[in-house]
Design a protein that fits this description.
2 domains; mainly alpha; about 70% helix
Length: about 160
Amino acid sequence: MQLAEALIERADLQKRIEQLRSRIAANARYQEGEEPDEDAAALLAEAEQAVDALEVLLARINATNASTVLASGDTVTALLARRDALRLRHSLVTGAADATAGGGGGYRQLRSELRTFAALPTAELRSRADALAKELRELDATIQRSNWEVALLEPTD
């Protein structure tokens, strides 16, 4: 199994667990004289099995990411950390640019109203955000490519 397939399976398991959680909550209590639509105990057992499978899969994914060294010399784990940091940095810079742009800061109805000014260079921030977005896209493509090229490590028992 390729790493990308394991990531798809991880997402499916996570969705399944959330669906089961919702169904358990909906069937955990019922009124006297009625029966619940589903057996909450069976749903809970099924959810616990899915969590066990997810735990094994996550361990394999993490071990694979930590041991896979790409052509750049970085592990997949290091690239994932870099991607998270880039996403956060992009969000910060974009938020700052949006805040400096404001809502027509130079417009005043009366001469007595105070004018507002940008404390940061909006155009520079937008340019920096574009560069970060490009770097993020390129890094994400590298990670996605490696996910399809790398085989998932076998479980260690």
